[in-house]
Design brief:
four-stranded parallel β-sheet, YeaO-like, single chain, alpha/beta, DUF488 family protein, about 120 residues
């Protein structure tokens, strides 16, 4: 059975098909209790840099450039281990990437899911 990488908001109810649930935000989501998050890991090291996150500001008009810059950050040496870990998780089980962002289609979780699924480089 093929594995899948999906993404959703951390506030969404967990689904049986979620598999491993990984928060990919650098900052803990406001108003979410850790006990209520239903996550397996918080991989903050995979999140965009603070500088990139601030520049982007969740402006959909900047998403294409955000995506390009974020993928470049993922190739930096200090990201090697978190990237390796996330790829290993996705190798043999379903993974759901979680974010607090309201617009998940224009988030780092969407970029990561697409990248891990091999749909774009």
């Amino acid at each position: 059975m093929a594995t899948q990488v999906t993404y959703r908001r951390i506030r969404d109810e967990p689904a049986p098909s979620d598999g491993v649930r990984v928060l990919v935000d650098r900052i803990w989501p406001r108003g979410v209790r850790k006990d209520d998050a239903h996550l397996d890991e918080w991989l903050r090291e995979i999140a965009p840099s603070t500088e990139l996150r601030r520049w982007y500001g969740h402006d959909p008009a900047r998403f294409t450039e955000f995506r390009r810059r974020y993928l470049a950050e993922l190739r930096e040496p200090e990201r090697r281990e978190p990237v390796r870990h996330l790829r290993a998780l996705a190798r043999d089980r379903n993974v759901t990437l979680l974010t607090a962002t309201r617009d998940v289609e224009h988030s780092q979780a969407a970029v990561l899911a697409e990248w891990l699924s091999g749909k774009r480089s």
